[in-house]
Amino acid sequence: MNCLKCHHTWKLSETSGRLCRDCHKPGGEAKGLLAKDAFHKNCRGCHDEAKKTNKPAGPTMCTHCHVKSK
Q1: Res. 47: pLDDT tops 70
Q2: How far apart are alpha carbons 24 and 36 in whole angstroms?
Q3: Which of 2, 3, 5, 65 has its CA 20 to 30 A from that of 12?
């Protein structure tokens, strides 16, 4: 996944060639925020607020990201 999918306020040059796990790992640049926790702790609340005010918003429901495999 491209960093800009979640870090949409960043510039492309800040994310070039990186994977989520490059930063979101113990001891990584994300300072302990593991990839599996990043969305739940940082993004979802902002997306919910944007949705309430009819602004464009990222995913807010579990199934928007967690797709069951067949």
Answers
A1: yes
A2: 8
A3: 65
In a domain, 37, yes or no: yes
Query: Global pTM?
Result: 0.51
**What is the residue range of 38's domain?**
3-64
d(CA 27, CA 53): 37
Q: How far apart are CA 18 and CA 29, in angstroms?
A: 12
Domain count, the chain: 1
User: How many helices and strands (H and E) does the chain possess?
Assistant: 3, 0
Smallest Cα–Cα separation from 44: which of 34, 59, 32?
A: 59
- Residue 70 inside a domain? The answer is no
Q: Which pLDDT does position 60 carry in this prediction?
A: 86
Query: Residue 14 is encoded by which pair of tokens?
Result: 């800040």
